[in-house]
Design brief:
Structural class: alpha+beta
Strand order of the largest sheet: 1-2-3-4-6-5
Shape: elongated
Number of helices: 33
Helix content: 40-55%
Low-confidence stretches: 158-173, 287-299, 305-315
CATH topology of the domain at 91-276: Transferase(Phosphotransferase), domain 1
Radius of gyration: 34 Å
Strand content: 5-15%
CATH class of the domain at 91-276: Mainly Alpha
Distance between the termini: 81 Å
CATH architecture of the domain at 91-276: Orthogonal Bundle
Largest sheet: 6 strands, antiparallel
Mean pLDDT: 85
Number of strands: 17
Length: about 775
């Protein structure tokens, strides 16, 4: 394909289908971008076909209507035939429907535009023949445009603008099967009512999130020809009787029983928007009334049952919920951070609602990003009563969020809504969404929660955008990503010096670096402390600031009781904050409050079941407590999440040692050093064990590691304790204390160290950390 056709310079491919490939091109004469469709080779095989197509393209070019993409040109060059049309920005309707049904007010508005566009085409005797969501585009300002009249035909003969019924000679099987009317499938006469059927399919999909007929091949033929579609309200209870009546009238099998013109459909949709009865609903009510007269006794019984069902309170209580990753509808992979950021914000805001028992944390829901797994299975794995699904579309400074509340057991959408705001009003958008969800799931909001949802103001768009990008980088947990996160958080602060979330983001990065031992001991806490201290001066309700304060007091200053109070304050502010329960568990564990630590860790895992760090540290706590059988079972969960994690071998080593299975313990330790690319250490351990048994092997390993300077004092201390070398282990613990190594307080909880508790040197180390008995 050449880069220029006639005076159109091709810029990029933007679509493809059976009727050709579509490119964004630039009209060099009129200095504008257009959509250029290159027709398939051989489609216009002779002069007669080309002349016929040119006439029909001329008729299409006369369709001047705000809801139809205008045809500018039809031409050929060097055997390549092409159409040139108006370039429409925005998203195809099928992309918007990936996140489920649209709110009814949007369906009515867009549906009316769709039918008005069809009415204009039918007035010019043009039948689309391939109407479907993929051929409808919605612009950023909510304008609907009908595209791709490539299969359209221009009917001949005198016709009424409201009921075109002229027969044509073209084969009518052209089109997209799930949206084809019965007469189109059977090759019979088609007319304007054929497009009305397709419009009904589109309205049905907008209302329910699925097509009216779902079969394949012959099954689909049978469904379209003989079976009535499920009532939209059965799939989405938010569909009103008025809208349902319009949709089902469009989908009547016999064209005589459908709307006779697209103008009628548009009129009924406008009536629905105005709250007046529609033609379809009046007819439907008359039909139902006639049937009720014939079966009055049965109807009375049914009405009694229905009344009992309606007025008997059987509302399912929703206590647990998960927000699945929002779909990015921009079509731009670089916008993933924005969709993920909105997901994260919704999780955080819902988690603050005290009326919800469980809100699944980010790490676990991200496991299901782009998954095809059934919602029922996802809900079962996460152990939640309901799911929130949705999509995010950002176009310039406009943000549109669509969300649905799903009952995973039935697949029914209990509620759906969309919100559209400027970036400056993104916080108000999120608060409106949270309030709506809380209302739908009948969560009683506390006075302070109600006030918080009403108090949001505007935000600096650049600061918010940089903040979301910073969090997106921070979650990667790598040193390079932490550097980028700090850059983005600083950009946010530069745009809005008072933007608290961005400043806390800086503190979180430094705290995580400390936790992951990516900086010298204490450096992370010292850089984080001024930030969260300043936040707490003006925001005592900041969960994140209290949790950072707890970590600083307990793990850097060794002020354990003060740290406990801060952990408790964070959990009080947000009982669903998984990280608060996790770090509180670690603090309690170091204080030898094992039962409380276990309860907090189990709660953290309930909130974030697929968080590999939570599962791994739960194994660590079981190991320190000497629960070897439970530890081995827990390590199976850890391995399912991170199968290549070398530390699993260290934990198994300890478990087997506790069970007296020394051969297995040695094998696990050897595997650890093989996986960490230190095969010589595995060999030293193996030789020592073969010559002198388990203790000799561990002693040989410890000596080799000391000689190589390859291991940290705490791990060496554990190895020498396994070798029975208590004095050397105590020397190493003192060395770790002098260096203030972060994990050192855990020795207070280790079963391996229990026999040292009577040793003055061990007690001295504990006293130095304020952990003495």
């Amino acid at each position: 394909m050449q880069a220029v056709l006639s005076h159109y310079r091709i810029l990029e491919q933007i679509g493809a289908g059976g009727m050709g490939v579509v490119y964004r091109a630039h009209d060099e004469r009129l200095d504008r971008d257009v959509a250029l469709k290159v027709l398939p080779l051989g489609m216009l095989t002779d002069g007669v076909a080309r002349s016929r197509f040119r006439k029909e393209a001329l008729a299409l070019s006369k369709l001047n209507h705000p809801n139809i993409a205008t045809i500018h040109d039809f031409d050929t060059q060097d055997g390549t035939d092409f159409l040139v049309a108006e370039l429409i920005e925005g998203l195809p309707l099928d992309r918007l429907l990936l996140s489920g049904p649209l709110p009814e007010k949007d369906i009515v508005q867009l549906g009316a535009q769709l039918c008005e566009g069809l009415a204009a085409a039918h007035e010019h005797r043009v039948i689309h023949r391939d109407l479907k969501p993929a051929n409808v585009r919605v612009t950023p300002d909510a304008r609907l445009k009908i595209l791709d009249f490539g299969l359209a035909v221009v009917l001949r003969g005198e016709t009424s603008p409201t009921a075109i019924t002229a027969s044509i000679s073209e084969p009518h099987m052209a089109g997209t099967l799930p949206y084809m009317a019965p007469e189109q499938l059977l090759g019979r006469t088609i007319d304007a009512r054929t497009d009305i059927w397709a419009a009904g399919c589109v309205l049905y999909e907008m209302s329910t999130g699925r097509r009216p007929f779902l079969g394949q091949d012959s099954t689909l033929f049978d469904e379209i020809l003989h079976r009535a579609p499920a009532a939209p309200s059965k799939l989405n209870p938010c569909v009103t009787p008025g809208l349902q009546a319009i949709i089902l009238k469009c989908l009547e099998k016999d064209p005589k029983h459908r709307y006779q013109s697209a103008e009628e459909v548009a009129r009924d949709l406008h009536h629905l928007a105005e709250g007046t009865a529609t033609t379809a609903l009046r007819l439907r009510r008359r039909s139902l009334a006639a049937k009720c007269v014939l079966v009055s006794v049965i109807a009375a019984a049914i009405l009694g049952i229905v009344a009992w069902l309606l007025f008997t309170p059987k509302v399912k209580t929703i206590q647990s919920i998960a927000v699945l990753p929002m779909a990015n509808l921009s079509g731009e992979p670089q916008q993933e951070y924005f969709a993920d950021g909105i997901t994260d914000s919704l999780i955080t805001d819902l988690a603050r609602l005290t009326g919800l028992k469980t809100v699944i944390a980010r790490a676990s829901v991200m496991r299901f990003k782009d998954t095809k797994q059934p919602l029922e299975e996802i809900a079962r794995e996460l152990k939640v009563d309901a799911l929130i699904t949705g999509a995010v579309l950002r176009s310039g400074n406009q943000v549109r969020v669509t969300a649905q509340l799903i009952d995973p057991k039935t697949g029914r959408q209990l509620w759906t809504e969309h919100y559209e705001r400027d970036m400056a009003d993104i916080l108000r958008l999120q608060n409106d969404l949270i309030a709506a969800i809380a209302g739908e799931i009948r969560v009683k909001l506390q006075a302070n929660e109600q006030a918080a949802l009403k108090s949001s103001g505007s935000i600096n768009a650049e600061a918010y955008d940089a903040y979301l990008m910073g969090r997106y980088q921070m979650y990667k947990l790598t040193p390079a990503a932490f550097d980028k996160a700090l850059e983005f958080f600083q950009i946010a602060m530069n745009n809005d010096p008072n933007y608290t979330p961005a400043s806390l983001g800086i503190a979180e990065v430094w705290a995580l670096r400390e936790h992951l031992s990516q900086v010298p001991e204490g450096e992370g806490w010292e850089k984080a402390r001024p930030v969260f201290t300043k936040v707490l001066e003006t925001h005592d309700d900041s969960v994140e600031a209290h949790e950072l304060q707890a970590g600083y007091l307990a793990w850097h200053k060794w002020q354990w009781d003060a740290g406990v109070k801060e952990h408790q304050r964070a959990i009080e502010l947000n009982p669903n904050y998984a990280s608060a329960h996790f770090f509180y568990s670690l603090t309690l564990h170091a204080m030898r409050r094992a039962q409380e630590a276990r309860e907090e860790m189990e709660r953290a895992i309930e909130l974030d079941p697929y968080n590999a760090s939570f599962q791994r540290f739960f194994a660590f706590e079981l190991m320190n407590e000497g629960r070897s059988d439970e530890l081995l079972l827990q390590l199976q969960k850890v391995a399912s999440l991170t199968p290549s994690e070398p530390v699993i071998h260290l934990y198994r080593w300890t478990a087997y040692e506790q069970k007296g299975m020394y051969k297995e313990a040695v094998n696990e330790m050897k595997e650890y050093y093989l996986e960490t690319k230190a095969p010589e250490m595995a060999q030293v351990l193996g030789r020592g064990y073969t010559r002198g048994g388990y203790r000799a092997g561990m002693r040989a390993l410890g000596d080799a590691l000391v000689a190589e300077g390859r291991d940290n004092p705490l791990r060496l201390a554990s190895i020498y304790l396994s070798a029975g070398e208590d004095d050397r282990a105590l020397d190493l613990l003192q060395k770790a204390f002098d260096k203030r190594l972060g994990p050192l307080p855990y020795i207070n909880a280790q079963v391996r160290c229990n026999h040292l508790r009577s040793q003055p040197r061990f007690q001295q180390v504990l006293r130095g950390m304020n952990l003495s008995d």
